Amino acid sequence: MGENDKPVISQAENVSEKPRKRGCVGHCVKFWWAYLILLIVVIVVVVPVLILVAVPKIAQSKLDHAELILEGISVSNTQSNVMTMSINSVIKSSGGVSANIEPFEGVMYLEDRLPHTPFAKINFPATTAAKLQTVNVTQELEIHDIDALTTFNQWLLANETLRVTVEGETRIRVKGIARNYPVTFKKTIEMPGLNHLDGTIVNNTDIFLSPDENGNNFVGDTYIPNRSLVSFELGNVTFFNYLLGDEVGEVFIDNLVVVAGAPNKNRMRATIQNDPVLHALGEKPYCDETNGVLPFQIRGKSVKNHGEELEYFTNALNKYNQTIPIDIGGTLKKSVGITIPCGGLPH
């Protein structure tokens, strides 16, 4: 190594992170306007979209997944064009969203019959999105479509189950957002039907040789089952009465109210032709195998309440025949002391 060859000293510079941070700050300071624009876009575009689109969809979804549980319907003060309807129900939901639902007018129609023609319009009260919400409604109901109401009564009478939909447009306000959002309330309920009032019983019967002042010669107690959730005030009901396919008289039940639940006991009276009944009692199988129990049939003829004909009940009861076995042989023996042998009474 010569005199002029000096050693080379390498010096490593320790670069800290501070300059990088200063670089980020500098970048933000330099491009502050771009970040401001981005913030404005978020505030002006994204937030309104969230409020106007996402929140209503969430609210509608919560409403769609809620369950409407029908506990009972009561129909009273029935008249030709108006009645009082009370509905007791519960709305069950998952909760999680604090919201208020405005009162609204809902329509009720048969889900499985097209077109979906409302048979009733109900004013539902304001509710909340609580997990369990009791909704009870009582109102005077104007009958706008007698045919639709008649069809509902026919379906209720004839079926073991039927599906009824409640639908209406309302608005919902989610807590923390000062805005009401339109939503659709639509729930389909499967409810038990009357199944032709199958199981109706007539007992404690009496026969009169001479008709009373009303022309009746037969009385008894009726036990009418109501497996549905609907209680009815019908009024004075008159039925056609048939025996083995022939009309033999009329049956009357006054002030008839059929309450949901246990069998309804009512006193009935009837005007029945004697000859067809006596003839049937002397024929097989009624004179021996059934011990005088005859298969009478009834079909609605008239339903009147407050002096008015109720077509929506009359036409429903008129659509179907109902068979009711009655122990006429035993009643005749008890009331009059007569037993009809096979072949009939001797002439």
> Given the structure, what is the number of helices?
6
Question: What is the level-2 CATH architecture name of the largest domain?
Answer: Sandwich
**Helical/strand content category:** alpha+beta
Order of helices and strands: HHEEEEEEEHEEEEEEEHEEHEH
Determine and state the CATH class of the largest domain. Answer: Mainly Beta
- Output mean pLDDT: 85
Total count of domains: 2
* Helical residue percent band: 10-25%
- Ends apart, CA distance between termini: 162 Å
Radius of gyration: 38 Å
Give me the count of strands.
Answer: 17
* Unreliable residue stretches: 7-17, 41-52
Strand content: 35-45%
Shape: elongated
Q: Report on the biggest sheet.
A: 11 strands, mixed
Task: Tell me the CATH topology of the largest domain.
Answer: Immunoglobulin-like
Structure description:
The chain is of the alpha+beta class and 347 residues long. The protein folds into two domains: 62-192, Sandwich (Immunoglobulin-like), CATH 2.60.40; 196-336, Immunoglobulin-like (Sandwich). It is 24% helix and 44% strand. The protein is built from six helices and 17 strands. It has helices spanning 18-30, 32-65, 146-158, 274-281, 311-317, 328-336; strands at 67-76, 82-92, 99-101, 104-110, 120-124, 127-128, 132-142, 161-174, 180-192, 201-207, 218-226, 230-243, 246-258, 261-272, 293-305, 308-309, 322-327. The strands form two sheets. Strands 1, 2, 7, 10, 11, 12, 13, 14, 15, 16 and 17 form an eleven-stranded mixed β-sheet that branches. Strands 3, 4, 5, 6, 8 and 9 form a six-stranded antiparallel β-sheet that branches. The longest helix is centred in the first third of the chain and has 34 residues, at 32-65. It is elongated and about 120 Å long. Mean pLDDT is 85; it is low at 7-17 and 41-52. One of its GO terms (cellular component) is fungal-type vacuole membrane. The chain crosses the membrane at residues 32-55. Keywords: Membrane, Transmembrane, Transmembrane helix.
